[in-house]
Amino acid sequence: MSREVVVAGAAFIAMYLLVEENEDENKPRRRRRWWKTQLYKKRAGSELMIDLKSQELSGQYKNFTRMSPIDFEYLITLVGPKVGKYDTPMRAAISVQDRLALTVRFLATGDSYTSLQYIFRISKQSISLIVPEVCLAIIEAIKENILVPTTPAGWKEISKKFEELWNFPHCIGSMDGKHVIIDAPIHSGTEYRNYKPFFSIVMFAVVDAEYNFLFVDAGCQGRISDGGVFKDTIFFKKLEADNLGLPLAETLVGRNKEVPYVLVSDSAFPLAEHIMKPDPGDFPKGSKQRIFNYRLSRARRIVENVFGIIASVFRVLRRPILLQPENAEIIVMTIAHLHNFLRKNSESQRYYTPLGSFDREEAGQIVEGSWRNEPNIGSLLPLRNVPRRAPLIAKHIREEFSDYFCNEGKVPWQDRYC
Q1: What would the mean pLDDT of 231-252 be, rounded to a whole number?
Q2: Domain spans, the chain
Q3: Which end of the chain is more exposed for a tag (fewer CB within 10 A), N or C?
Q4: Mean pLDDT of the chain
Q5: Which string of DSSP letters, residue by residue, matches 239-300?
Q6: Rounded CA gap, 137 and 84, in Å?
Q7: Where are the beta strands (DSSP E) in 145-228?
Q8: Would you say 202 and 178 are in contact if contact means Cβ atoms under 8 Å apart?
């Protein structure tokens, strides 16, 4: 090939490229389809179809938020100042309303981050930042809804309700714990592996007579013995140090022996001066041990109902939580705070726990709550019962309660069930 032909070919290619470049400059540029700030500004807020100005409730709204529009708007005003601002334009364009809607939907439905990505048009990376941040903001904003009484008068108010509603005097709370199943944490070995064996964190709670949390602790490693879970809580340490402000021991009505104010629990916890649990064994019908166990179970059933409600309503608890333990702890604590928040707001209480949600009694006959109809209550596993040697003083206190329930404190229907 001659030199002249090569030069001519190169000149032709150069001229062709120049012409194409000029034509491209005159063409209108194609609009980018994804990841533009305008996409977030125009987004309607997902399938929730939230209209905070309207008082009309739809079944879809209830399913995705578990609360009324009024309380959702109120929660926005509480959470908004506590939610930080992102440094990237795409994340900064996500409104507080959308962040809260995304987080509440995640708790209510248990949708994966992948599903939420397509619904809200937000990347999974952003969602993984938004959910824990908003959950922490919710806890901070409504933390006053879970408060442990600090005075004898406060504890006596709780005890009065237990006696009025559940016929158990001197009761200051019903307590229990659950293993919350989580995904195997990275490089954790067997730290979170429980007795089942699954990986879990433990949720411990004390509730009052009206199905509200008094104290919640979450995050204890699943491998720790169930007795150790309780002893690791601030509540136990204050109880042991006599720093809870409990009332002094008093006599039961018609009795002479003073008994302390107590918490009721199942067999997973130790029998102690301030903790009553069932009398172990199989007792004949009509015996005082059987009567005591029946009366204690009526009061202890409150905490069982609370765990059942949160697992049936906040469906993120109905499957293993696929998050690291620290974020799973935040999720559990947020649900506990939202439970009290919704229970104490009359507008949302009708949608969160309508009539028939909890177990109830009619002339001593137990009518099971609607939460028990759920086919699978979720990833909440009971604590393991561990036999322990109880102190003699605790046995004497249980004996006094047993005698009281058979005599001065007898209820008309107990003989039919004991």
Answers
A1: 92
A2: 37-141, 149-417
A3: N
A4: 82
A5: HHTT-S-PPPPEEPTT--SEE--EEE--TTS--BTTEE-PPPS---TT-HHHHHHHHHHHHH
A6: 9
A7: 171-181, 200-207, 213-221
A8: yes
Query: Which pairs from 119-122 meet CB under 8 Å and 24+ separation?
Result: 119/46, 119/47, 120/43, 120/46, 121/39, 121/40, 121/43, 122/94
Give the chain's length. 418
Q: 43: pLDDT confidence band, cut at 50, 70 and 90?
A: very low
For residue 325, which amino acid is it? P
DSSP letters of 351-364?
HHS-TTSS-EEETT
Q: How far apart are CA 50 and CA 355, in angstroms?
A: 26
Distances (CA, A) of 363 to 116, 360, 412, 414: 47, 10, 9, 10
Residue 75 has pLDDT above 50, yes or no: yes
Which residue would you say has higher pLDDT here, 218 or 83? 218
The pTM of the full predicted model, rounded to 2 decimals, is 0.83
Distances (CA, A) of 396 to 119, 343, 399, 405, 408: 60, 37, 5, 14, 18
Predicted confidence at residue 162, as pLDDT, reads 96
Spatial separation of the C-alpha atoms in residues 122 and 94, rounded to whole Å: 9
- Nearest Cα neighbor of 412 from 309, 291, 261, 305 is 291
Whole-number Å distance between alpha carbons of 66 and 402: 42
Alpha-carbon distance 191 to 220, whole Å? 10
Q: pLDDT at residue 27 above 60? A: no
Nearest Cα neighbor of 274 from 301, 244, 254, 307 is 244
Burial 319-330 (b: 16+ CB within 10 A, else e): ebbebebebbbb
